[in-house]
């Protein structure tokens, strides 16, 4: 008798919940298939849009995981499983994790913004947090900068997204400013001719933007000449030293004397 009652109850339960379970299974299968197709489409779309390679796997994983979670919740609703306790548990875990990982999450969010907005890229020369160097890697949580004296500096991304960053190579070229002082007896036209000759022969001096040479100030014992010339941003320091050396040699060779020169 008890066995017969059990079978009757089981039969009734199957008739009552069976369609919902089958519908949930069908939705689960269709949803997983749809997520797989969508992930492939997103991957191809990101490739065409040239999304940063270090960001693409994360975004694809985040999108797929979020869709799977939503799919599981939808399937549980279709089957008839109560979500009250589950939602409260997820909420509590989320709050606790957020409080424990607040700094990490800030770095994480900042890393995403840097990779999307691209205020700087790998290979750029930047000044940030008192450090000047070349960006070697941009990670989700931090950025690696190699300074010119070969120090590796790891900067949390939250520091880079909330404070001033100077990208000194973003435009591709930088201006070199040189100021020279001459006595009043030295002809400025001759000075300008010599400087132009040096810059014309310097391969690392750019023709565009146009250079500028002029008298910066006039003083009782002489005048100062300002030289503004544009150089490639990469290799700027080497080019600066080379041009300054050539200017010094050309001025000395022409017989023009700067203050303090023998």
Automatic annotation (TrEMBL):
Subcellular locations according to the entry? Cell membrane
Q: What range(s) does the Mechanosensitive ion channel MscS domain occupy?
A: 104-169
**What topology in the membrane does the UniProt record assign?**
Multi-pass membrane protein
Q: Where, by residue number, does the polypeptide cross the bilayer?
A: 20-38, 58-79, 85-105
Q: Which domain of life is it from?
A: Bacteria
Any idea which GO molecular function terms this record carries? mechanosensitive monoatomic ion channel activity
- Transmembrane helix among keywords: yes
Entry-linked InterPro entries: LSM_dom_sf, MSC_TM_helix, MscS_archaea/bacteria_type, MscS_beta-dom_sf, MscS_channel_2nd, MscS_channel_C_sf, MscS_channel_CS, MscS_channel_TM-2
Task: Assign the protein's first listed, main location to one coarse class.
Answer: membrane
Indicate whether Cell membrane appears among the record's keywords. yes
Q: Which UniProt keywords apply?
A: Cell membrane, Membrane, Transmembrane, Transmembrane helix
What SUPFAM superfamilies does this protein's entry cite?
Mechanosensitive channel protein MscS (YggB), C-terminal domain (SSF82689), Mechanosensitive channel protein MscS (YggB), transmembrane region (SSF82861), Sm-like ribonucleoproteins (SSF50182)
One GO location term (cellular component): plasma membrane
UniProt family annotation: Belongs to the MscS (TC 1.A.23) family.
Query: What is the protein name for this chain?
Result: Mechanosensitive ion channel family protein
Per the UniProt record, the source organism is Dyadobacter sp. 676
Q: What is the lineage of its organism?
A: Bacteria, Pseudomonadati, Bacteroidota, Cytophagia, Cytophagales
């Amino acid at each position: 008798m008890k066995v017969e009652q059990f079978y009757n109850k089981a039969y009734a339960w199957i008739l009552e919940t069976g369609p919902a379970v089958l519908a949930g299974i069908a939705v689960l299968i269709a949803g997983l298939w749809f997520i797989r197709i969508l992930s492939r489409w997103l991957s191809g779309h990101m490739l065409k849009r040239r999304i940063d390679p270090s960001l693409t796997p994360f975004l694809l994983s985040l999108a797929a995981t979020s869709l799977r979670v939503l799919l599981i919740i939808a399937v549980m609703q279709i089957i008839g499983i109560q979500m009250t306790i589950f939602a409260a548990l997820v909420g509590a875990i989320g709050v606790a994790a957020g409080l424990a990982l607040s700094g990490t999450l800030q770095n994480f969010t900042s890393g995403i913004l840097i990779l999307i907005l691209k205020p700087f890229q790998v290979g750029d020369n930047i000044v940030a947090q008192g450090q000047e160097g070349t960006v070697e890697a941009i990670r989700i949580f931090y950025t690696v900068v190699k300074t010119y004296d070969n120090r590796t500096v790891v900067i949390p991304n939250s520091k880079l997204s909330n404070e001033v960053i100077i990208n000194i190579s973003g435009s591709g070229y930088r201006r070199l400013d040189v100021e020279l002082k001459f006595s009043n007896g030295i002809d400025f036209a001759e000075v300008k001719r010599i400087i132009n000759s040096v810059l014309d022969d310097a391969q690392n001096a750019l023709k565009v933007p146009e250079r500028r040479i002029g008298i910066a100030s006039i003083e009782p014992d002489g005048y100062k000449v300002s030289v503004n010339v544009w150089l490639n941003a990469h290799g700027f320091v080497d080019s600066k030293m080379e041009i300054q050396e050539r200017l010094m040699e050309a001025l000395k060779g022409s017989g023009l004397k700067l203050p303090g020169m023998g």
